[in-house]
């Protein structure tokens, strides 16, 4: 389990979450999006409104990337990758 800090350097916001496995839960993804940018129609950030260099880091400062897609059942996911 990893503690991640997700940042948006346009709105100067951040969101912390505990990652279990490699995917964010829908609740976590929605909470991040709302916390990092509450502006309707704003295109500031990525899949979870992360923005800026090193916008997803763990407590050791290691950087992660978020990738989104659909699984074989058509459900949307956000996967956190450390490579
Ligand atoms: Zn925004």
Descriptive overview:
It is a single chain. The mean pLDDT is 94. The protein has one domain (2-81). It is 13% helix and 37% strand. The chain is globular, with a radius of gyration of 12 Å. It starts with a strand and ends with a strand. Strand 5 and strand 6 (76-81) form a beta hairpin. It is mainly beta. It is built from 1 helix and 6 strands, in the order βββαβββ. The chain has one helix at residues 26-36; strands at 2-8, 13-19, 23-24, 56-58, 65-70, 76-81.
How many β-strand stretches?
6
Q: How many domains?
A: 1
Calculate Rg over CA atoms: 12 Å
Query: Termini distance?
Result: 17 Å
Strand content: 35-45%
Helices and strands, in order, run as EEEHEEE
The unique ligands bound to this protein are: zinc ion
Q: How are the strands of the biggest sheet laid out side by side?
A: 2-1-4
Helical run tally = 1
Main beta sheet strand tally, sense and closure? 3 strands, antiparallel
Which segments are poorly predicted (pLDDT under 50) over 5 or more consecutive residues?
none
> Could you tell me the mean pLDDT?
94
What structural class do the secondary elements suggest? mainly beta
Q: Helical percent range?
A: 10-25%
Shape: globular
